[in-house]
Give the backbone structure.
Amino acid sequence: MSNATTSARTSRHWLRNLLIGLAVALAITAAAGAIYQEIGTEKDRHAYPMPGDFVDIGGYRIHIDCLGHGSPAVILDSGLGDSFISWEKVQPKIAQFTRVCSYDRAGLGYSDSSPRPRTSRDMAEGLHVLLQKSGIPSPYILVGHSMAGYNVRIYQNLYPAEVVGMVLVDASHPEQAKRFPAELRDLDKTWIREEEFLEFTMPFGLPRLLGFCGDKAQERAVDCNFHSAREGVRELNAFPISAGQAGKTGSLGNLLLAVLSHDPAMPQPDLPQDLVQPINRAWNQMQEELSHLSTRGTQEVAKNSGHYIQL
């Protein structure tokens, strides 16, 4: 046997051992990350146990938390990928004068995932079943933040007799994708990639390790899990469909409507400076248009507030 043949076999043997070693190391690292994620989740959920109840709405459970007494009940719907805790400062205040409920849409927070698509129509129909099975009688005042503005408009369109008022909290507009500057689309693609990164790495604990899950046990307990990351991506990918569904709902007639809009003077560090003004102009125009959905619509700018007015 020649020296060259022996050397080639030795190299292949060394390379095979190296690849096996790398595969074993990756498997151990992934397993350790999964254990770290599981232990961290259990620890956080022990420190912050789920408030409210689970309600089975057809083979899967939805988490809902209601406070206070009275009618009409106020129903709080969170923005894209957000859990019920986005209303933690608002809900106790409303509970002082009427019943108020926040909830986690399917797959978010404490709720089980749903086999149905994550469009706004599916969410509105799911919310209707949830309220019926929770024994929360209408009439309702629906409050929708950001993308949930689509949800509550569709809910009112499907079940108009149940809704006596609506609050749109810096709500999305069905035409915003085509009325924002074209450069924003590149940022949207970046956002999608970031959300997909979280979805892919969440089972292995990387977002938790890197501090992407926040410094509050409450936030980590509710949001720092694989199914929430996955559902956030599903909602994001369905956003154009949801916008089209909301755009077909038309007028709200004389429904009591309040539109709350963020302060355009607030800094927006996530946006390039040259896009801030054109985006604000387009947003302000669309927010005014939302207030005209009803003959009794009003608009108020929340001074010193960003997109999360309720915080």
